[in-house]
């Protein structure tokens, strides 16, 4: 169980970091938020992969296609995050 959690955090960090490199512009995110975006992106990528190809993780947890899907999902989540977060305004 602990190995699974560590794997999820590491894959989330890698996917979030690569997504931050791919998305243009400045993102004011901490390392923790990068990991969270990567983990959420992994779920989004896995869900989209299941919808498109009707496959699941029965062949193993850590697969190259899963990592690529995690990065694609993290890019989608980061784009949504920057669009929604950029609309906040301060009223005085």
UniProtKB/TrEMBL annotation:
Bilayer topology reads:
Multi-pass membrane protein
Q: Known InterPro entries for this protein?
A: Transgly_assoc (IPR007341)
The record's GO CC annotations read:
plasma membrane
Q: Which residues cross the membrane?
A: 29-53, 65-84
Q: What is its main location?
A: membrane
Tell me if Transmembrane helix is a UniProt keyword of this record: yes
Keyword annotations from UniProtKB, A to Z: Cell membrane, Membrane, Transmembrane, Transmembrane helix
Is Cell membrane found in the keyword set?
yes
| Taxonomic superkingdom | Bacteria
* Compartments, record wording: Cell membrane
What family is it from?
Belongs to the UPF0410 family.
State the name under which the record lists this protein: Putative membrane protein YeaQ/YmgE (Transglycosylase-associated protein family)
Native organism? Lapillicoccus jejuensis
